[in-house]
Amino acid sequence: RLNDAVRQQDGVIAQLESEVARARVEWLEAATRKSAVSKVIESARNEDQRLEERRSQKENDEHAQRRGGGR
Q1: Model's pTM, two decimal places?
Q2: Residue 58: which of 8, 68, 66 has the closest Cα?
Q3: Does residue 17 or residue 67 have the better pLDDT?
Q4: Are 42 and 48 in contact (CB under 8 A)?
């Protein structure tokens, strides 16, 4: 009886270890996807900032020309 219980518990442990390994793989895949998406978002934010800075500089340049700053 004791041997049967030990074997049964060994089976439960093996099943749980398998589930943990599968969950770890899923977590790593999700972390990889999150990292990739984060990089895309950061790149888009940087591009937005760069475009906003260019737009602002163009406005400043045009304003300076209207005030007689142009050559």
Answers
A1: 0.63
A2: 66
A3: 17
A4: no
